[in-house]
Structures
1.
Amino acid sequence: MKSSNSRIDPWPNLSLAYSGGNLPQSLLVVGPTPQGEPAIAWCQILLCEARGESNCLCRSCQKPLEDHPDLAILSPSPHTIKIDDVRSVLQSLGYRPLWASTRVVWIQEADKLGVDAANLLLKVLEEPAPFVHFVLTTEYPDRVLATIRSRCQKIHLPETDRSRRELGPDWMLARPLLPEHIVDAVWYVEEAFRRTHQTTWLVLWENLLQAHQALATNANQEVWRERIRQWWRLS
Ligand SMILES: [Zn+2]
């Protein structure tokens, strides 16, 4: 049993996986793009040659992450992650790691994988070499190929740090009205109520919980979207 690691302590789900010695080979980190930190911390832990804490002085921890010989980063260029890029990274996985005990592939904005690229990746995710780890990050998990999602352990980041503007109607209502997006909004509303003690937030909180329940039993998304839009206006 490994102890917790201060690099990932702020993210309980990651911390739990680590302390259980259960480092998922494929991890899908769901959260807004600016919160790339858990993915960075996770890559650093995987690449560390001493399995060390944040002040580790091993060769890998001292190297800037993007220059590490065992890390490959895939990102959209400019709008999609291209199949040629995916292919060349996957080909490099045939070689054992140079410094670390694992090769790490970080796929940024995984929702931007083209269909062909996603299918190519899927073949490797189904049976990765034991010395390979994948870290996928996305703000829109529902746009990631379902078969890829099902191959990954999913970590959903809490949304407590969002500003009002980011979590307002523009944020939630611009997305498919999924229960997990309502959960994000509930986080925000709960914080707002604790901060202000205004009952309007409490009412909105209760309404969102109702919406969450209704959508879990396949209620009409558009009807609830319109209701939520009204509630946001009233708050
Ligand atoms: Zn280290």
2.
Amino acid sequence: MRIIRVALLGFGNAGKAFGELLIKNEQRMKEELDVKILVTGVVTGTRGAIIDEEGINLRKVIDDLTETGRFSKDTKGLCNMTTKEVIQEANYDVAIEITPLDVFTGQPALEHIIMAMKRKKHVITANKGPLAHEGKYLKALSKSQNIQFFHETTVMDGTPIFNLVEETLPFCKIQEIHGILNTTTNFVLEEMAKGKTFDEAMTEGRKRGFVEADPSLDIDGWDAAAKLMALMNVLMETNLKPQDIHRTGIGNVTAEDIAAASNEGKVIKLICKGRFEGGKPVGIVEPVSIPLKDAYASISGTSSVVSLVTDLMGTVTITEHDPEIEQTGYGIFSDLIRLIKKTQ
Ligand SMILES: NC(=O)c1ccc[n+]([C@@H]2O[C@H](COP(=O)([O-])OP(=O)(O)OC[C@H]3O[C@@H](n4cnc5c(N)ncnc54)[C@H](OP(=O)(O)O)[C@@H]3O)[C@@H](O)[C@H]2O)c1
């Protein structure tokens, strides 16, 4: 049986959801893929690291974290190695980068990924920052290092976009991308259309867990811009950063704007668009009034949508309906399965 060693760089909500799937599917992976996954490294920002070449007991680690927020002191392999030490020194085949996003630099995840790739380790990430800043470079580096690099979870959790293009749209050139990619703004605009003020919509969103304590990255369009850049840099081979594009958030959208749109049979959505103009890549994130009969008008709550305009297959549109954390875990898990199959 093939053994694949995995190092988890970051182990928060996404990591735990992925870990649950790994535990649940352990037997099936053995039977169907003849593979045993050994998690040999887990590293966090403030809770220390665990290194165990024989395989970390993921069930215990998840339970301890859930119950106490910490690794229990009796955890085998518990140590104070830094993330960089783990990347450089641990024994693993695949690094899974799931540290928090820095939308303005992509760091430290970008450096983590480059370090792992330079050691010729396969990489999976759910963090869109590195792709939004250096997606083209990372794709080229993974190719030159002859390793696999998958990142399905970065834009729409486990909903296939990158994998769909790479596996099922051969020879297609992606000419344009559009979508509704940020769920917080989608939720707030929808609540405002129902008659709530901006502040009331934000309060409701916080109550229901859609709105972060600091929502500015969503409201100002940074999160949407980073997702658009991740898509453009990989699928259209552009070399842009979130700071390079035209970005208008929803902070200035008023109840009057929404009522005026409604009177015309329209609804306001934060729309992302990427295309080439005169040979140059252009990215736009801005609130747009769209007709109620447009399919995008029905994208509600935490759902999102992406349309890929291709030369050979026309326009392909993919919708993700009301994702939960399990779909984030599945995105990482599906990348791992793809990696196993690609390296058989
Ligand atoms: N949650 C989702 O639904 C979702 C969906 C798609 C994509 N993503 C992406 O997935 C990534 C992880 O999200 P999450 O929700 O799991 O975040 P999270 O719950 O905040 O967990 C982040 C983890 O990274 C650790 N960490 C922080 N800095 C680190 C460092 N320098 N080195 C190693 N570990 C470090 C944290 O440890 P401490 O807690 O000890 O600091 C924690 O274990 C993010 O980039 C996010 O954008 C998340």
3.
Amino acid sequence: MIAKGWIVYGQRLRLVAVLAAAVLAGLTAVPTRSAAQQDFDDIEIKILPVQGGIYMLVGAGGNITVQIGDDGVLIVDTMFAELSDKIVAAIRELSDEPIRFVVNTHAHPDHIGSNASIALKGSNIAGGNVVGAIADAGAQAKIVAHENVLIHMSMQDPPIAFEAWPTDAYYTAKKEIFFNGEAIQIFHQPEAHTNGDSIAFFRRSDVISTGDVFVTTGYPYIDVQNGGSFQGVLDALNNIIDLAVPADRQEGGTMVIPGHGRLCDEADVVEYRDMLTIIRDRIQHMVDEGFSLRQVHSARPTLDYDGRFGSDSGFWTTEQFIETVYEELNASE
Ligand SMILES: [Zn+2]
């Protein structure tokens, strides 16, 4: 929870996020359906000041984090392709400086959709002999992501435009950028929501942009096909909690921008982590007792949280969530 004014705003954001989740659900349920068939005309991009040089853009798809300053603009994630003009217009309300960096938290279409069009509108910082030697050295914003995002994006059928691919893929545990007078640490979160998740920590502004390892709109979606795991999500949440420092009486301090949903602080992440830990322990107990999946479903291990996070329809139901956790815990027996 955060201060009272935020809660009202948060509820509005949540509505937007529910709409966004519905759009995503449609896309994910039928993978061949193109985003063009969704109606994005009515989607407005809302700008929420977070703190320091950081803003949050909310529309359809994943939240966008914007960092502005004298060096230019850095953004984390790019929503859907259809929204690129609106996203750029929103960024231009905040800064006239060039867009230098696009960071992707993972490869899902609602987080990378506008990569190509936004990166091509930007330019990277190239100096000295590089500019003379390579004609297009500064021609596009850098796209930074974990290597598995590049691998995923380069192997899609139908293919994703080359201009949308990460130009700066990292394969270590951490990637560092110093931009706008601020240290930005990008940490890989192995086998979490996918196998290519990054969280971005803006050290001076004291803001963490989490991607989909943390959402406020439902149970975490574990994309097992793309290398995700429940334990990886729990580990990622604990990493976020390690980085975040709460202010007075646990309100505020480090602010946390989730992949979907409203602006949060550390206490929100702790609540979410605790919920998932409790659910994990309940299902683990049932696995230890030899329960079948059917018996686990009957025991309803998420019942007390379903009103807030559960779903009977869409691409990620409570039933699928429970099954995914059960299968993982059962396999590690
Ligand atoms: Zn995602």
4.
Amino acid sequence: MNNNREDTICAIATAQGGAIGLIRVSGPHAIAYTSAIFNPFKSGKRLEDCAPYSLTYGHIFERDETIDEVMVSLFKAPHSYTGDDSTEIACHGSSYILQKVIQLLIKQGCRMAQPGEYTQRAFLNGKMDLSQAEAVADLISSTSAATHRLAMNQMRGGFSKQLAALRDELLKFSSLIELELDFSDHDDLEFADRRELKKLADHIEQVISKLVDSFEVGNAIKQGVPVAIIGETNAGKSTLLNALLGEDRAIVSEISGTTRDVIEDTINIQGIIFRFIDTAGIRQTTDEIESMGIERTFQKIEQASIVLWLLDATIANRQYSDLAEQILPLCKDKQLILVYNKEDLSYNPPTPPTNCQHISISAKKGTHIDKLQDMLVSCAHLPEITQADVIVTNARHHEALTHALDAIHRVQQGMDMGISGDFLAQDIRECIHHLSDIVGEVTTDDTLQFIFEHFCVGK
Ligand SMILES: Nc1nc2c(ncn2[C@@H]2O[C@H](COP(=O)(O)OP(=O)(O)OP(=O)(O)O)[C@@H](O)[C@H]2O)c(=O)[nH]1
Ligand SMILES: [Mg+2]
């Protein structure tokens, strides 16, 4: 990846089709390059001579032709988003104009920004830590009040401040223990108060395990509560998926075994994001590909928190008893809802087994889909989220925290068993390492590249 920080970069930061299009320029020559294609209308003052954090009205020109009338905002290092000199050119939102201005900037010496390069520079310039940078991407992609609140919290520092404070205290202990090791011929020397260290380790263990546990909720909030739609072939699973999503996402047909692979999509219902997973219908088959699909169906049941078991209401009792033995054990710790579909065809309402949540619908006619949605919302069991809630939503953070928790457990156990200082120091260092990883202090270039390449261009 070409991400030389000395380059001056440019990108269109707004989506296509709006009235205004914003071009961002950042880097050592941002102001000079912008100035070279910009003529201020009134003041006649060159951009270089304008006060920072000011807005200048003028036109972008190419030779003697005016390309657009624009507003240019000016930011001086280090007080800009990236921490470098930057300008933002607000143009009219024509894709022709925007491309033209980008071309002119490139002629001056700019290069196109990589995805996430502005935020990456902000991180590298110390404007934010890595978890805050990641929150910027989450904020842009937030699709519900809860994901928005969590991203906002994390962008403001979230748990990284708290973790940094705990890590600093651990660092103090680790250097004291290392000091003890330097004096190892004096066996009884203890610079690091073991009682204090134990207290700190217990406290850290508490904080981290709470964060680790919060990921289940965090992940459901961010990726959507996983809902598997399962049942025999032709029960109407794909029809139901389409009805829930309000679009023709999956192929529906009267041929058994239409869906062979897993189809997933998310939708926001009453503020909660659900991830619906349409699966291959379960039946005995000799078709190899269909069997593979059915195997996946069972995997998806395991990953789901809510299972919608679709039964064709006209033959529901038979379908239930055929599959109960296979399905029920997999749903023990999940919310299972029996969905009797095709109620429009059924004259005798089926008798659902007691102790099972159930509902009758017609996926095809859209009857009672709203009731099913209400049921889903009440089954989701997600807490009300405020901007003060500290919840881990990022898989990378979850992984680092899990490693940190393992290390701190070893510190606790080691102290209980009275192990020697050098082993203790090693576990403490490991815990510190994983805590530092979250805020990006020990993160490798590969990890950084992975994180930022998933950003949009212009952010
Ligand atoms: N009358 C009626 N027909 C329905 C209803 N829901 C689905 N169907 C029909 O049932 C047939 C099968 O529907 P699908 O949604 O493809 O069923 P599926 O469970 O996804 O089937 P596979 O993918 O083969 O496992 C289609 O012809 C649908 O139009 C319903 O509520 N009422
Ligand atoms: Mg299907």
